[in-house]
Structures are given as structure tokens and as C-alpha cells.
Amino acid sequence: MKLTGLRILDLSLFLPGPHLTLMMADHGAEVIKLEPPGGEPVREVGVKQNGTSVWFRNTHRGKKSICINLKEEAGRQALLRIATTCDVVIEAFRPGVAQRLGIDYETMKADNPGLVYCSISAFGQDGPLRDRPAHDLAVEALSGLVACNVDSQGRPVNPHVPAADMAASLMALSGVLMALLRREQTGRGDFIDISMLDSLMAWTPNVTGPVFAENRPPHPPHERSFGGNAFYRTYKTRDGRYIALGGSEQKFVVNLLKSLGREDLAGLHALGPGPHQQPLVDFLNATFAEKTLSEWESFLADIDVCWAPVLDLREAFDQPQVQHRKMRWQDAEGNDHIGVPIRFAHETGQPSSNLPRLGQHNREVLLASGLPAETIDQLEKSGVLITDHY
CATH number of the domain at 232-305, please? Predict the structure, then answer.
């Protein structure tokens, strides 16, 4: 696999960092997860299947677990010993915490100059918001994107996708791979500063036109991506389901309106997004309300237009396309997993369904880092190493 031979030390919790290292584990990297004494919090968050949190399974499969008390100097030294054998370290503490713990980049690179060290935080390692705590929703709010998602009364709606978390995860993965590629040429590692806010704002090129060109915020009801385009919005069907039109190119507009006998309305769409498209919106609202979703699926099947039924998440994971691409798969015990989205023609990912117990790999990882067995025995007896023996 593409990342076979790489050793990753993951100090992060929850979603951005663990998702990043999951993708690396799925493609062959050895990922060592440092868990706090109480365990990774998402072991107990959300719905469980066969006794295991689905969230934990889909962010920690195939990883090794170590649990070390970093408040003890012997524990810190043990972790630093492990870091000397690693190619990459991922951490998501608040800025300054890694330094206080003595496990920051400057400390680790002293014995491992080729180390690629990635810090993921809400707002980055500098700036006026550096020390403010935040999870996904607060970051999305500060990015301006929550204000772009409003209901019919103009009230902001709570986004149900952790876009800031996932944007940071993907930006961090890109940065880590860039640094590893450069290391092949220079032998030198690097420090990567990933901000969730930066990452999410980098996702806005298609909606920043009003901001950059006209010095105003977007007005969602009139903007192309937020409802101001009749062919980029959802419509309710007769049976209470919804259908999404998702392509605003004029050729698709003409194709659908012609099939509905109202090609004369295409000129309104050609004027661009805005309130002048309301007659087109009204026509489509009334038209889609005349048939059930199933009937519309049959009607639209042979028309060259961008559309899709609005599926719930269960339906989405059950659909044939997702099954064909193996984006939902079951392990031998019948546990469900999200599949591997990065596909190669050669050496494609091979996700493991193995889940680590808390601290299961303490001894294995420390022995591989060169620590004598007698020293490991002492760390276990003193409680510096923690293991859940269930």
C-alpha cells in the first residue's frame, strides 16, 4: 500500500486528527494512538453496534493504542522515545499545551530532525483567537458559512455536517503528504500549523463573489448556491419527499423545461440568479408537487439534467452506487464501516477492522522504540502505562 513503512504517532482526539490518521492507516501506515487515561472520548459517544461506538470504529480501526500518563516524567520520556521512531506526529491540543507538556515540535525534532509534526487547532497557533476553545459549530459560525445557511425566515440553521472538522482533516493530510514528499529531497521534516477556520474559509471560492467584488455579504435567497437559482434548490413532491435540482448550466435548464412544456421560462434563468427567477421557482414548486418522488424518478431518468432524490442518511448508505464503490462494508462480526474514498489503480487501501483495546500496544510499541523490557515492566508497575485488560 502507498503508506506502508510510515509510522504515525497520533496525539489527537475526536474527529479531525483521528480521521486524518485513519486515512493513513487504511493505506498502510502504522498508526500509534495515544489515548488519555480515560480512553479516547468517542469510545463512548453516540450509538453503539456490538458494544462498540460506531464513531470510534470508523476513526480508529487498524490503529495501535498506547496509554501513557504524561504527568509523570517517565511517561513523557517514554513518549519522546516513541517519537524518535516516527515519521509523523499529529496533535490537536490548544496552542501552547504541547509545549507545556514538553512534547512539542522543537523538543521532538531535536532527536528526530526528519519528523513531520502537524498541529490542528480551531484558529491556528497565532492570532487574536489563538487561545479560544471551539468545536465545529463555533468555527463554522465564525467562517460566515452558518449565515449562508438560513431557513425561509432568514434564521441561521445549525449545519449537520462537521465541515470545519473535515476540512481541517483533509488540509492536514495534504500538508503532511507534501512535507513527507519534500523530506525525500532534503531529509528535513517540518512543522505544519492547520487552523480549522483557515481550512473552512479556503472552501469558499464559489461563494465569495459578493464579498470580494462588491464588498457585501451574500444574500442567500438571491445567490446562485443558496436558493437564488431555480435549478439549484430542492422541491417537494406529492408524497412529501424532496427532489434536488443541482445543475444550473443553461443546457440542463432548457432540457428540463422543454420536457415540461415551458421552454419559454428558460430566458428568466439566463439572466442569472436573483428574485427575477421567482416565476420559474413557482412553476417548479407547483409542477413537482403534482407527482410522487418515484414518479419523478421515472420521468427524469432519460432526461439530461442534474437532479437527485433527497435521501436520508440510511438510504444514502444503502444505495447501489455506494454499495458498488464499497463505501459501506461489513467486517466478519457484522460491524458496519465507512469505506475508503481514495482509490488507486495499484496498491489501493486495505482497511483493517481490528479495534484496539485501551493501551493494548504499550509494550509492543515501546519495545519497538528500543526501550528495555525491564524498564517497561517498571513503567507498568508504577502506573505510568495504563492498560484496559477487558
Answer: 3.30.1540.10
